[in-house]
Amino acid sequence: VSEQKIRIGVIGCGHWGKNYVRLFSGMPGVELTAIADTEAAKRQAVAAAHGNPRSFASHSELIAAGVCDAVVVATVASTHYAVISEALRAGLDVLAEKPFTLKASEANELADQAEKGGRVLMVAHTFLFNSSVRQIKGYLDAGVVGDVYYAKARRTHLGLVRQDVNAVWDLAPHDVSMFLYLFGEKPCAVQAVGRRLLRNGREDAAFINLVFPSGIIANICVSWADANKERFLDISGSRARVAFDDLNVQEPIRIYHKGITVESPAEPTFGEFKYLLRDGDIVSPKVAVKEPLRQLCEDFLSALATRSVRLSDARFGAQVVEVLEDVQTQFSR
Ligand SMILES: NC(=O)c1ccc[n+]([C@@H]2O[C@H](COP(=O)([O-])OP(=O)(O)OC[C@H]3O[C@@H](n4cnc5c(N)ncnc54)[C@H](O)[C@@H]3O)[C@@H](O)[C@H]2O)c1
To answer: Ligand 1 atom 40: the closest Cα is on which residue?
Structure first.
């Protein structure tokens, strides 16, 4: 007797949703039973290329058809809350794309809804499933960086300009989720400035500062109006600096075994502090590269089996939204 396959549906088959269709249609133990997209040409092309699953013109039709155990929500950001809520109400497990929702209250409400209904609700913070980011988390936890002083992240390029959200809601979920995961804490203060450059009524570029309870400070620069494409994060500490360049396939991580600390004498008097400079190697460690989205999809399947989300659950997703909401509040002042 063959084991029952998990029936998965993908809602939203645009630029990103197509990747879920590709991955889930080729995974053991899974049957991609349905896809939905409001644009006929998109859903027809995607269905034809992936074994012709049932194809629906809206999320509601797919949900009502009752042919799925779980759905991926990869529609545009402004629709997430309504689509996820409808799927949970229908008793489905959900993997939701970022930004989870556009309001923290809605994110927490969905987390409550999933908990009450015994549903799995996971948020697709892809970078938490990136081998380089996992490896950097290992370095931090093992003390390689020493005391973390501060961190910086840059996510810039020309476009892709979204029609429903600003650059912060589109791009910063990646960096905020990485910092929350890497430092294991939520910021206690958020500052931000942003600019509307492309006459679309939304912030196309922003500089965000985060302060964490441990004292770590972090800066995030996001823009879709920048000729320089960057996907970069680095963390400086007392023992080392670790840099992650997602565009560098050969050497995504570099560890600079260099740092500055201060040695305090037994009985300090003014001017007696000595600065200790460490000057060691710059190392590009080997990273076992695996497609992050595949890793995330596999984690979602484990969550469905164990009924518990290991990483990036709805509460974590809500924390990310809370930070983004704090940023947005500062723009409207
Ligand atoms: N995790 C990542 O690294 C990553 C990368 C890219 C995009 N994303 C996220 O994925 C989501 C989709 O992004 P995209 O680039 O694919 O956008 P997109 O505009 O290319 O695709 C969205 C699709 O959803 C469809 N759609 C909208 N409302 C619908 C509904 N009610 N029912 C069915 N279909 C509906 C649209 O027709 C469109 O084809 C966004 O939330 C985005 O932030 C995440």
So the answer is: 76
Average pLDDT over the chain, rounded to an integer: 96
Handedness of CA 105, 107, 113, 115 (dihedral sign): negative
Q: How close is the Cα of 37 to the center of ligand 1, in Å?
A: 9
Task: Give the position, in ligand 1's atom list, of the atom nearest the Cα of 125.
Answer: 1
The two structure tokens encoding residue 243: 């840099």
In this prediction, residues 305-317 reach a mean pLDDT of: 98
pLDDT at residue 1 is higher than 50: no
- pTM of the full structure: 0.96
Give per-residue pLDDT as tens, 74-113.
999 999 999 999 999 999 999 999 999 999 999 999 999 9
Q: Give residue 315 CA to ligand 1 midpoint distance, Å.
A: 22
User: Which residue from 95, 44, 105 is spatially nearest to 74, judged by alpha carbons?
Assistant: 95
| CA separation for the pair 16, 46 (Å, rounded) | 12
Distance from residue 16's CA to the centre of ligand 1 (Å): 6
Our CA dihedral for 104, 123, 198, 153, rounded to 10 degrees, sits at 100
Residues written for the chain: 333
**The predicted structure's pLDDT at residue 237:** 97
- Cα-based torsion angle of the residue sequence 111, 112, 118, 123 in order, rounded to the nearest 10 degrees: 0
What is the residue-wise DSSP string for 170-218?
Answer: HHHHHHHHHHHHHHTS--SEEEEEEE--SSSSS-SEEEEEEE-TTS-EE
Ligand 1, pocket residues at CB < 6 Å: 11-17, 36-39, 42, 58-59, 74-77, 79, 83, 97-98, 124, 126, 170
Taking the CA of residue 57 as reference, the ligand 1 atom at the shortest distance is: 33
Distance 66 CA to ligand 1 centre (A): 22
